[in-house]
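seq as requested:
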Amino acid sequence: MRMTKMMLACALAAGAVAAMPAAAKDKVAATVPAPPAGMGQVVFYRSSHYGALISCRVHEAGKVVNKLPPGKYFIFQSPPGVHEFTVKSESTDVLRLEVEEGETQYVRCAIGMGIGVGRPNLSPQSREDFDKRGKGLDPMPPYEGKDKDDK
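struct tokens:
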């Protein structure tokens, strides 16, 4: 009797998975368009929900580029040249990138262990990593600078 109930529960669970819409089963990473003429771009993404309460607010030259909560990504389009991006909590992490015209680079924000709170970390990644970890990520709208701690 007990085995029959277990088999019935497994069969119902398998049927529920089979009945799921294809979009829920086969999520793919976002399509990233080419940058505009004369520009390059950096795709920032945060796939892990670890450290969900820790901000991964990306700055360049002291100004917020955009926020990056878990499960989101945004595309930063910029003129070619050297760009220095920072994220901070109890410490600051700096990532320096050379952006070239027509190029798309990928940067993942991950939250590591800190003493008091988690530490955001920016690391350059490949398109393959974005394709793997970016499944189901939602785009962030452009940043409007309305947060209380913006400078």
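The chain has a mean pLDDT of 81.
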